[in-house]
Amino acid sequence: xxxxxxxxxxxxxxxxxxxxxxxxxxxxxxxxxxxxxxxxxxxxxxxxxxxxxxxxxxxxxxxxxxxxxxxxxxxxxxxxxxxxxxxxxxxxxxxxxxxx
Amino acid sequence: xxxxxxxxxxxxxxxxxxxxxxxxxxxxxxxxxxxxxxxxxxxxxxxxxxxxxxxxxxxxxxxxxxxxxxxxxxxxxxxxxxxxxxxxxxxxxxxxxxxxxxxxxxxxxxxxxxxxxxxxxxxxxxxxxxxxxxxxxxxxxxxxxxxxxxxxxxxxxxxxxxxxxxxxxxxxxxxxxxxxxxxxxxxxxxxxxxxxxxxxxxxxxxxxxxxxxxxxxxxxxxxxxxxxxxxxxxxxxxxxxxxxxxxxxxxxxxxxxxxxxxxxxxxxxxxxxxxxxxxxxxxxxxxxxxxxxxxxxxxxxxxxxxxxxxxxxxxxxxxxxxxxxxxxxxxxxxxxxxxxxxxxxxxxxxxxxxxxxxxxxxxxxxxxxxxxxxxxxxxxxxxxxxxxxxxxxxxxxxxxxxxxxxxxxxxxxxxxxxxxxxxxxxxxxxxxxxxxxxxxxxxxxxxxxxxxxxxxxxxxxxxxxxxxxxxxxxxxxxxxxxxx
Lengths: 100, 484
What we know:
The complex is a heterodimer of chains A (100) and B (484).
Chain A: H1 4-24, H2 28-53, H3 57-87
Helix pairs in contact in A: 1-2, 2-3
Chain B: H1 15-32, H2 40-59, E1 65-67, E2 72-74, H3 76-103, H4 108-126, H5 130-148, H6 155-186, H7 191-200, H8 205-222, H9 231-238, H10 241-266, H11 271-294, H12 299-320, H13 323-351, H14 366-369, H15 371-385, H16 391-405, H17 409-435, H18 450-468, H19 471-480
Antiparallel strand pairs in B: 1-2
Helix pairs in contact in B: 1-2, 1-4, 2-3, 2-4, 3-4, 3-10, 3-13, 3-18, 3-19, 4-5, 4-10, 5-6, 5-10, 6-8, 6-9, 7-10, 9-12, 10-13, 11-12, 11-17, 12-13, 12-16, 12-17, 13-15, 13-16, 13-18, 13-19, 15-17, 15-18, 16-17, 16-18
């Protein structure tokens, strides 16, 4: 029998995987995928609680998060395209011209 | 059968936001139908929108109203922060007029993005529901990512935008997870209901603790509190100078507003727990900011660390958690907007085309070659240090007093020591300007336009007048700080 705790644990694990990915992956596209993973982990938490509490606010929040994630991906990819035109690299380690 | 209830909607409450968004859309349309040479007037269209929104916001001062089924609140607190944000946006537009022409970047989208970001700040400031606060934060942040990378042919700008985007999105995810856990514990995303269920003790305490901690991480990123500050120096250095000026004023004020509202309305019963967290955050933020600023060679980067240090002083007001501390934060945010945008206006002037001249050496002999700009910068730097009779002194004095009244003697001692450290790096710039040998290298002359001069006059006025005659502004801030 799946309980609320199972879903919460799953979303927590997904969130941690996403965080570790953002902090350790070197390719910008993979980093952006990890950010999406984090947002979707949060969505799962919202849905779980909304179902458990029998309340609509959680569902509403998920739609908002999905819209925001879409907008964020658009701007993020545009930035990546502009960067790639000038630098021809997607490796985060090579982005180090801003320093003291 | 359930009945569909349409809640009361009063569009008058969101009047300023409507003005901002409509002006932004209008700018996008005008951009298409305007010849390249005539694009100068787009800036003044944007400025007109900002002035109209300011008038409407100032009109709302003194009345309190909940709207959109309790998701949106208009009160004095919101009006004050909105006016600070509009001041920041207006001054940024004035600084940007010549900048956009010199750099050859098209105008329409630039000003539209500034206004969209400002409307996002408004929703954040007025949000009394986590949904509104989160949406406002995202509208603001996404506009700022685009603005940071606006000069898209410059590698530094690209890199700044990307770093800001990745770390900003990470912060949003943390904030969102915090909201989700608090929602799970209390069954609502409305700040007032969260506060009630905490007071009655029916909420799951462990979930709330984890959720609140994640909220601190999310908001901490946005206000660049140590240890979540690592994006700030890179982004401030790489982004176009007027955008940096913008980022250091309005968005910061809006995030502080939302931060204050969430912790004072939703989580006030946890004050006994969170004052220690803010105490540590405040001390770390001001100390690391000031010490790192000492060894910078780039002025924009130095100002980034200085803005981190100022966030540390403002966090002192959080530690106290009473209305006196809140009014000190409000006043400090106003003063900080005036002086910081002025400094960045001077940085914009000195940087010249392509922003190549931003190191300390580029300021050599500036005080003799351009006496008026030199004196302006010195006054603004003295205000950032907090030397009387500038506004920076009153702001700091007020915020230190609020901490002292609550008995945080050690916090105030550490803050005063930090202020002394900050004297070194601000004065280093002054010394470079007045006391070093002039270089023989011939530099292109500085271009001063009427709009830039207006921005400098406003910031000088604010930095001096608020220092000499602060009482009416402090009364205004105190009236705005009485959060129910």
